[in-house]
Design goal:
The structure holds 2 protein chains of 2 kinds.
Chain A: H1 14-19, E1 21-24, H2 29-41, E2 45-48, H3 54-63, H4 70-84, E3 93-99, H5 109-119, E4 127-131, H6 145-168, H7 177-194, H8 201-216, E5 226-232, H9 234-238, H10 246-252, E6 255-258, H11 262-280, H12 284-308, H13 320-330, H14 342-352, E7 357-363, H15 367-372, H16 377-383, E8 388-394, H17 400-421
Helix pairs in contact in A: 2-6, 2-7, 3-4, 6-7, 6-8, 6-12, 8-12, 11-12, 13-14
Chain B: E1 2-8, E2 12-18, E3 24-31, H1 36-50, E4 55-61, H2 66-72, E5 76-77, H3 79-90, E6 96-100, E7 105-109, E8 115-118, H4 127-136, H5 141-148, H6 162-174, H7 179-198, E9 208-211, H8 213-217, H9 219-229, H10 242-249, E10 254-257, H11 258-266, H12 284-294, E11 311-317, E12 321-327, E13 333-340, H13 345-359, E14 365-371, H14 375-382, E15 386-387, H15 390-401, E16 407-411, E17 416-422, E18 425-431, H16 440-450, H17 454-461, H18 475-487, H19 492-511, E19 524-527, H20 534-544, H21 557-570, H22 581-585, E20 589-595, E21 604-610, E22 614-618, H23 637-646, E23 659-662, H24 668-681, E24 685-688, H25 694-700, H26 711-724, E25 730-732, H27 752-764, E26 772-774, H28 786-796, H29 803-838, E27 842-846, H30 854-857, H31 860-866, E28 870-873, H32 893-907, E29 913-920, H33 926-939, E30 945-949, H34 956-970
Parallel strand pairs in B: 1-4, 4-5, 6-9, 11-14, 14-15, 16-19, 23-24, 23-25, 25-26, 27-28, 27-29, 29-30
Antiparallel strand pairs in B: 1-2, 2-3, 4-10, 6-7, 7-8, 11-12, 12-13, 16-17, 17-18, 20-21, 21-22
The chains are: A alpha/beta, B alpha/beta.
Chain lengths: ~425, ~950
């Protein structure tokens, strides 16, 4: 009930860069640990927030419109809670939100955050929008190409660790073995990043090869488990806070989980620039920028896929070029808001790789998901009659019991299929 | 070995014992009143007495049983899966199972690839819904069943979530609709809800089985399903127990010694792992202090036991209760009455007046007024002098207790009303939207379901030590939150206290959107029957951190306010026209339902006849059936816009030309002039889908994949269906990420639904395979690039043109579109001029282009015109503004117009002008736009009004908002 329409952008200055902590919401737990180091390398003091629970949700609900998407409630809630709980000096912190821009209402997070700050009387806190399209400029914060490049590399490390842990952990003979490998590598990488190592092609190749070898050497049982893929809106897909610890729940139900990586999403946003140009026309510069970024990501992607080649015990992710072709089976690639065409493409990828049980995690009332989630299930079912897709809504008012109940049903069918196949 | 299956549902517990050959030896079905552990314990004891010294297997199923099964290490099987196991065992060859439970609706497709559909987290429960409706009408489920059998006709009731259906039924009840018709309509709504929400494009045919409580107990419900599906379903023996049977049959069963197990269960206490709120009262003395403080809330007004010389009568015919009171010239009250509505307010008021006249034959009623949902019928039935909008009634009453009141919150049976008072005028009104009407009747129904009276409810709540946190959303969400709490083994008093707290949070955070209690005001008066519950009152004080005033007549404040209003209006002389004792003796009331054929709307009218000659008609959307002289002129830009579009809807077909079909949906309401011109210039015939109707919607509803998407998008399925059945060769419905760029915002997107709905249509409407469906991506925002891209698209479908031809057609199309938009602007100027000259109020009914569809807006534009205002659209004035800075990212074309229109409204100082925002339920983008529009409107000291619309055709709440808004104009 605020009458002002001015939520002024507060600059993040060079002085602030030296003194301030930048608070980031916990979107991709594994990746953020590494990404934080890349920020440090460029002189930014990034702190990833881990607050969870009712207080955080309540803070979000209090200052963000209740009907706004659940990820906004969670991630903005985390940041506002950080400012009010006493752990930080509000005059010595800035907030950062990751933005892809585009026609989804998620593009509004920055403005919603500023509005909330104003209502809290903290409009002096700078809010940085981190986006690939450079929506706003700050004197003390700039996303340079080298930093972006290294950021993407850290994302690939995160993807790799997540991928292998998911494939090994359910089968490990000695409980905790794969977690230890993850911890070991997070420590190694953090240390390497601190010294600006491990972020070049050579170093990365070496690291990735060693990571795969480490996981390969973990002794495993040869049993068949139900394989479940997770796709969805990017926040509730990855964030345990957003999805009520979905991966843990599936592990407790004796499943193997596959979560397509974050890199795919980055590539998706790059390639949409090219698609836009093809569909509607536009400046050549935009087209070339898109092509440049896509190529850069492709180069890094290759490192990951190469490291996995030769291991028949691991399922490697499809290359982005393959993903595009998979998308064409079910949806037009002009659908580019939110997760857009990538989401159905990932479902096809999962099904074709044997993860035909899929949870499509979506915030309640997510607009793009009406189209690319629930909207395509029918097409999928026609193409792949054995696909077992289960859309789950996440929301401040939704309860774990309903979500788990639905997932259990999907798993009952999955177990039956598994038994039939044996 | 014998097998036990236990099905713990949301409200009932079902148990079966099977022998080795799967014969049922024992079965029971009971309400568990949330006492799951105790019930399970005694059930197992009973079984072990009946079948002593035997090891038996046990498997638990049902949503409320999961927690107990987990904690005790007993095998759990998902209930749908259990149903399937049982059906495959006992009824092999079944194609489809329809199962309704307390809160769940499920369809299982067993043949040709298993598919399971459960109701989404938004669609309300079915059994609980029927219970709720029955209690609303004050009849039992059996009565509902037998009444439904006697129906003449079916009313349209929203087939979405239960709460919506309720808002449809309420006015029917209040307007005196026939009970058998309403009963049958409720069952049909359940059927439509199940089929529309769950089938999602899959046909229901073959061998159908009905399971679950409602379908077992209500034969008319089965019949309704049979009717709608045009099949004959089977309701097998033991249809209540299929989940339990399936659990018993589960292959992963484990055997137990029952005595031991029952022992274990009795020792099982739940470790309270649920999220809780702080207790309402920490000690007895705190409660005493609280009681003492509130006992002085209304010291200035007293009850009198005999009538004074001059008395004033006030009636509040509310949604679930009906209140009446008289007051003297001092405002002291007399002879108050508070009763459940029971479906028809008329007999209650008759009885009230009869009693009054009998006890006090000499009473002198100087004036009378009525407010509430039933205002019209009561006013007509008993010749009440004045009708008054509820908000004004409540304010009038509250001011009597607290002259400096600046915030009033009224939580009634079915609605929440809050308003701020500024400078003695109502300044800001918040009404709950249809979705969150979890108010008084919700608490009552819940208490009833758990087996408690409201008094017990209160006394249990105040002792709660750890009230469960149930969130702050609609009833349906709360139902499942309670389910979760039951699963966690929460004690009943903590659940009840949690319900009270959730009602308060719902009001504060969902309805008022309060971020800070300071913004509410300092002198708060709470009213409405719900606040008579001390738990609710305390929760409100705790949540706001303020002590508030609760008048001891809190439950009848609407009626009391009406009485005071009658006094104010009457000049305190003369006699009220209210029926006298002798007139009342001859009072009769007949009800007849007919369909009005005055226009395309085909309103279902209820004709009430009083005393054999006084008629009152309800259910009409316009004045036509009232036989009043039709009001001469409406200045309504909605009508004008529809008129302009009519000329493109002639559907002329010339032989030998290819025919393009255009669905009249979403953005087509704006772009029809463009596409129609483009295709016509290229030599196509163009036909446009027909005007939206209820039956057009129903024809398409089976293919809607997402039950929570906005209604305008859902309507698209009906329009596509109509085109599939037309003579067109191709259907043209393109995807458009970008809208036209009007330079009003930072970007010019469409919302994801408008942008990509053709993709959803393509994926879910099977019958499209027989037509060419052109759903390609087009960008008309790039005028120069468009023709070449469009040529490519047409080429792909075998329609070949030269680039020159397309360029010419395109430029004609752009010109036509610009002309169309300019015509709107000119008309708006003309209407503004008329308004200025005649001193008429102007309302900008701001929404999206597709809101001009009467099936979407339910004639709200007409209601505003009838209240005497000029109606403009947002797009007819938005171009008068330049881009300006907004507090939100301004990146959607339609929404940029909203902000610009709002700004324009704030700048017109010489005229009585305001904006009313139409918001489609489920529109995610409006979570962003409504706050922004509100802040623009309020920055000029104007009142922001928002109206949420869905497929529900309930204009009652809309009228309250609008009348309150217009009451401000009058001040």
């Amino acid at each position: 009930m605020d009458n002002s329409d001015k939520y002024t952008k507060v600059d993040f200055t060079k002085e602030m860069k030296k003194e301030y902590q930048i608070l980031a919401p916990d979107i991709f737990p594994m990746h953020m640990k590494l990404l934080k180091r890349v920020f440090n390398l460029y002189g930014y003091n990034l702190t990833v927030l881990h607050y969870q629970g009712k207080k955080v949700i309540d803070t979000g609900l209090q200052y963000v419109h209740n009907d706004m998407c659940y990820p906004a409630i969670c991630s903005i809630g985390q940041q506002l809670y950080a400012l009010t709980c006493g752990d930080f000096d509000p005059h010595k912190v800035a907030l950062i939100q990751f933005q892809t821009g585009g026609g989804c209402r998620a593009s509004n997070y920055i403005k919603l955050l500023r509005k909330a700050l104003k209502n809290m009387g903290m409009e002096y806190v700078p809010v940085i929008s981190l986006s690939f399209s450079g929506l706003e400029k700050f004197s003390g914060f700039k996303l340079t190409i080298p930093m972006l490049y290294k950021g993407i590399m850290s994302i690939v490390y995160g993807d790799m660790l997540m991928l292998l842990k998911n494939q090994v952990k359910p089968y490990e003979k000695e409980a905790g073995a794969s977690d230890r490998v993850v911890d070991k590598w997070v420590d190694i990488l953090k240390d390497q990043f601190k010294h600006n190592r491990g972020l070049g092609t050579r170093g990365m190749k070496r690291n990735l090869n060693s990571i795969v070898a480490d996981f390969h050497n973990i002794p495993r049982d040869n049993v068949k488990k139900v394989k479940v893929g997770i796709v969805g809106e990017i926040y509730v897909k990855y964030s345990p806070f957003g999805n009520n610890n979905l991966e843990d729940f599936l592990a407790s139900q004796d499943c193997e989980v596959m979560v397509p990586g974050v890199l795919g999403f980055v590539q998706y946003t790059f390639s949409n620039r090219i698609i836009d140009h093809n569909l509607y026309g536009g400046s050549r510069a935009a087209l070339l920028a898109g092509k440049f970024l896509e190529k850069m990501a492709r180069k890094i992607e290759t490192l990951m896929i190469d490291a996995l080649s030769g291991y028949d015990d691991f399922t490697a992710p499809s290359s982005f070029e393959e993903i595009k072709l998979l998308a064409d089976k079910v949806i037009d690639r002009g659908v580019k808001m939110g997760e857009g065409w990538l989401l159905p493409a990932e479902m096809v990828e999962l099904i074709e790789k044997g993860y035909n049980n899929i949870i499509c995690a979506q915030p309640f009332g997510c607009l793009p998901n009406h189209i690319v989630g629930k909207g395509v299930i029918r097409t999928l079912k026609e193409l792949y009659p054995y696909s077992n897709v289960c859309p789950i809504d996440y929301d401040a008012g939704a309860t774990a019991v309903n979500q788990e109940n639905r997932i259990k049903l999907m798993l009952s069918v999955a177990r039956e299929q598994l038994a039939d196949n044996n | 070995m014998k097998k036990i299956g236990l099905d713990v549902g949301s409200t009932t517990i079902k148990c079966v014992v099977l022998d080795e050959k799967n014969n049922i030896l024992y079965s029971t079905y009971e309400r568990h009143m949330s006492k799951i552990i105790e019930m399970t314990h005694s059930l197992l004891n009973k079984i072990s007495e009946k079948f002593p010294d035997e090891e038996m297997s046990l498997v638990i199923s049902g949503s409320a049983g999961m927690g107990m099964a987990n904690d005790l290490g007993i095998t759990f099987t998902q209930e749908v899966y259990a149903t399937r196991t049982a059906v495959n065992t006992y009824l092999p060859g079944t194609d489809t199972v329809i199962e309704l439970g307390g809160e769940d609706a499920k369809i299982l497709f067993l043949s040709n690839g298993l598919e399971v559909r459960m109701n989404g987290s938004c669609a309300g429960g079915t059994g609980a819904f029927i219970d709720q409706m029955a209690s609303l009408m004050d009849i039992s489920i059996d009565e509902l069943d037998s009444l439904a059998a006697k129906h003449d006709k079916i009313y349209t009731i929203a087939s979405r979530c239960g709460v919506f259906a309720k808002t449809d039924i309420q006015p029917l009840i209040n307007q005196g609709g026939r009970i058998p018709d309403i009963a049958a309509s409720i069952l049909y709504a359940v059927v439509n809800q199940t089929i529309g929400g769950l089938a999602q494009g899959r046909e229901i045919k073959g061998k159908i089985v009905y399971l679950g409580g409602p379908l077992t107990f209500i034969s008319e419900l089965r019949k309704s399903f049979d009717d709608v599906l045009k099949i004959k379903g089977i309701c097998p023996e033991n249809s209540l127990y299929y989940v339990a049977i399936g659990a018993a049959l589960s292959p992963d069963n484990v055997s137990y010694n029952l005595k031991e197990l029952s022992e274990r269960i009795s020792n099982y206490t739940v470790t309270a792992g649920y999220v809780s709120c702080k207790p309402l009262f920490n000690s007895d003395s705190e409660y005493k202090e609280f009681k003492e403080r509130h006992s002085h809330d209304s010291d200035n007004i007293h009850e009198i036991t005999a009538p004074a010389k001059k008395m004033y009568l006030g009636i509040d015919a509310g949604s679930t209760t009906i209140k009446a009171v008289l007051c003297d010239e001092e405002g002291n009250y007399f002879h108050s009455s508070y009763q459940p509505n029971s479906g028809n307010p008329v007999p209650h008021i008759k009885e009230f007046l009869e009693n009054l006249y009998r006890e006090f034959p000499d009473i002198n009623i100087v004036a009378s007024a009525v407010t509430g949902y039933g205002e019209d019928i009561i006013k007509n039935a008993f010749k009440i002098d004045y009708g008054i909008v509820e908000t004004i009634a409540h304010y009038t009453a509250a001011r009597k207790f607290r002259p400096d009141v600046d915030f009033i919150i009224d939580i009634g049976g079915q609605d929440i009303k809050c308003f701020k008072i500024h400078n003695g005028a109502i300044d800001n009104i918040f009404l709950n939207e249809a979705c969150s009407s979890g108010c008084g009747s919700f608490l009552q129904t819940f208490a009833g379901a758990l087996g408690y009276s409201m008094e017990e409810f209160t006394s249990l709540s105040i002792t709660a030590d750890k009230p469960v946190d149930l969130g702050s959303r609609c009833t349906v969400f709360m139902n499942s939150s309670v389910k979760q709490a039951q699963k966690d083994g929460t004690s009943v008093n903590n659940i009840l206290a949690g319900l009270s707290i959730s009602v308060v949070k719902n009001a504060l955070y969902k309805v008022i959107r309060c971020t800070n209690p300071d913004s509410l005001g300092n002198n708060i008066v709470v009213q409405g029957g719900t606040f008579l519950n001390d738990a609710v009152l305390r929760a409100f004080e705790q949540e706001t951190g303020r002590n508030v005033i609760r008048p001891h007549i809190s439950g009848i404040m609407g009626a009391y306010g009406a009485a005071l209003y009658a006094m104010k209006r009457s000049k305190k002389e003369g006699h009220s026209s209210v029926l006298t004792a002798s007139e009342l003796a001859g009072f009769t009331h007949d009800v007849k339902a007919i369909v009005c054929n005055g226009c395309n709307n085909h309103c279902r009218l209820t004709i009430n006849t009083f005393d054999g000659n006084r008629k009152f008609i309800a259910g009409n959307r316009c004045e036509k059936p009232l036989n009043l002289p039709v009001k001469k002129v409406h200045y309504d830009l909605y009508d004008y816009k529809n008129e302009l579009l009519m000329k493109y809807r002639a559907n002329k077909i010339e032989e030998g030309r290819p025919t393009i079909g255009i669905p009249m949906v979403l953005n087509m309401y704006e772009l029809l002039p463009f596409w129609h011109t483009l295709f016509t210039k290229l030599g196509f015939n163009v036909i446009v889908s027909p005007v939206s109707t209820r039956s057009l919607f129903i024809n398409g509803q089976q293919t809607i994949p997402s039950d929570t998407i906005c209604f305008p998008a859902k309507l698209a399925h009906g329009h596509i269906d109509a085109l599939i059945n037309s003579d067109c060769d191709a259907i043209f419905y393109p995807c458009m990420s970008y809208n036209v760029d009007e330079k009003l915002g930072d970007n010019h997107y469409n919302c994801p639904v408008v942008a990509y709905y053709p993709v959803v249509i393509n994926a879910n409407v099977k019958a499209l395979k027989d037509k060419i469906f052109i759903k390609d991506f087009v960008g008309i925002h790039r005028k120069k690039d468009f023709p070449a891209h469009f040529k490519k698209i047409l080429d792909n479908y075998g329609y070949h043109f030269s680039l020159k031809q397309i360029k010419e057609a395109s430029s004609a199309a752009y010109k036509e579109y610009d002309g169309h938009m300019a015509a709107l602007e000119r008309k708006a100027d003309e209407y503004m001029e008329i308004a200025r000259k005649n001193n008429l109020p102007v309302i900008v009914l701001a929404g999206r282009p597709y809101h001009i569809d009467p099936e979407v807006n339910h004639g709200i534009n007409r209601i505003i015109c009838n209240l005497g205002a000029v109606v403009l659209t947002e797009d007819s004035i938005s171009r008068k503004e330049k881009k300006f800075r907004t507090g939100v990212l301004n990146q959607w074309t339609y929404h940029s117009r909203l902000y610009a229109a709002a700004k324009y409204v704030t700048e017109q100082k010489d005229i009585n002008m305001n904006l009313v925002q139409l918001v489609s339920f489920g529109c995610g983008v409006d979570a962003v736009t409504s706050d922004e529009t509100r802040s623009i409107i309020e920055s000029a000291g104007k009142i922001y009004t928002q109206i949420k619309i869905d497929e529900v055709n309930n204009t009652g709440a809309v009228k309250i908002r609008l009348r309150s808004l217009f009451a401000l104009f009058d001040n």
